[in-house]
Amino acid sequence: MAHILILRFSAIGDVAMTVPVIDSLARQYPENRYTVVSQTFLSPLFAHCPDNVQFVGIDLYNVYKGIPGMYRLYRELLQQKFDAVADLHDVLRTKLLRIFFRCSGLKVKHIDKGRKEKRQLTRKKNKIFHQLKLTTERYADVFSAICQPLETLDFRSVFGSSRGDFSRIAQLTGEKKGYWIGVAPFAKHEGKIFPLECMEQVIAHYAGREDTTVFLFGGGASEKMVLEAWSEKYSRAVSVAGKLDLSAELILMSHLDVMLSMDSANMHLASLTATPVVSVWGATHPFAGFYGYNQSPANAVQVELCCRPCSVYGNKPCYRKDTGCMTQITPQMVIDAITL
C-alpha cells in the first residue's frame, strides 16, 4: 500500500481537471491512499471521490503564506508519512515543497506543462498549430512517473451515474419544467469573454421560450450586477450568483440540459457533472489542452483566424486591436450550437 500526496492549489478549472484523474486512479488502486492538498473552498470537488481519497484544505494567504508558510505546511504534511509526492501545479510554492520533501528522501514528480509547445502554438508568427496533450493526460503522466500508471479514465461525474441532491437547490430553482440552460458569460481575462451585448441576445432568445429556464452563473460584485439586471429584464432568466455555494452549484449543473460558458472554470465544473457544455473560445484555443473533460469538440464555438490562439490563458492584449476572435462570433452561431 502506498500513500501519495497530491498538490494542486489553483486555479478552479485546473483543480477541477484533476478530479477525473484522481477519482479513476483511486478506483484502479483501491489499496493505495491519496491525499489532495488544495484551497479549502474547493473541497466539494472531491466530496464524492472514493474513500481512499482524502482532501486537505489550506489557507494560502494567511496560515501558509510565503516561504515560512510552505515550510510549516511541509512539516505538518510530513507527519502523514507519504511514500511519494505528485506535484500537479509546478509553481513556486509547490517547487519549495518539492525541495523539502526531496530532502526527506521521498520520491517527487511534477507535471510537464508543455510550456515550449504552448509558446509555439500561441506565438505571433510561424505557429505550430496542432492539438497538444490534454491537461488530464499531463496529470496522469505524473502518476505514471511514480509507478502509478492509469490504464483508463473511467470517471463520469462527481455524482456517479446519478445527479446531485435536488432538494439542496429546489427552493431557488423550483420544480424542473421543460429545459434548463446554464449560462456563465464571464472569465478571468477579457480575451475569453464573449461581448456581453451579444451574450444578452443569446439569453433573450432562450428566456423568451416558454419551455426553457436560463440560470445565470457568475461571481463578484460587478458580475452579479450584470446578471441581476438580466434576471430582472427576462422573466425566465434566474441569476444564481452569490446564492449558491460551490457544492450547490455543482448540483444545479448536474440538472441542466446544457451549459453555455466561456473557456472558464464553469466549463470544467459542468464537465464534472456530465452535463454537455457549449463553450465559446476567443484568444485561447482547445488545442492548448484545456478543453472540458469528456466534452464533444463539436461544441466549441470559435472562428478560425491566423492569429489564434494568441494566448494560453487569454491574458494578452489583442495586437489586432479589434478582438476579432470574439467579435466575429455571432449570437446566432452560439444559438445554433445549443441543442435542446
Task: Describe it.
The chain is of the alpha/beta class and 340 residues long. The chain has 2 domains: 3-145, 3-Layer(aba) Sandwich (Rossmann fold); 169-337, Rossmann fold (3-Layer(aba) Sandwich), CATH 3.40.50. The protein is built from 13 helices and 11 strands. The strands form 2 sheets. The protein has a 6-stranded parallel sheet, with helices on both faces. A 5-stranded parallel sheet has the order 3-2-1-4-5, with helices on both faces. Helix 3 packs across helix 4 (92-103). It is globular and about 60 Å long. The termini are far apart.
**Any idea what the CATH superfamily of the largest domain is called?**
Glycogen Phosphorylase B
Total tally of structural domains: 2
Distance from N terminus to C terminus (CA atoms, Å) equals 47 Å
Strand order of the largest sheet: 8-7-6-9-10-11
Average predicted confidence as pLDDT: 97
- The H-and-E topology, N to C, reads as EHHEEHEHEHHHEHEHEHEHEEHH
- The amount of beta strand, in percent, is 15-25%
Instruction: Kindly provide the radius of gyration, computed on alpha-carbon positions and rounded to a whole number of angstroms.
Output: 21 Å
Q: Which stretches are poorly predicted, pLDDT < 50 over at least 5 residues?
A: none
* Total E-strand runs: 11
The DSSP helix count reads 13
CATH class of the largest domain: Alpha Beta
Described by the principal axes of the CA atoms, the overall outline is globular
Gross CATH architecture of the largest domain: 3-Layer(aba) Sandwich
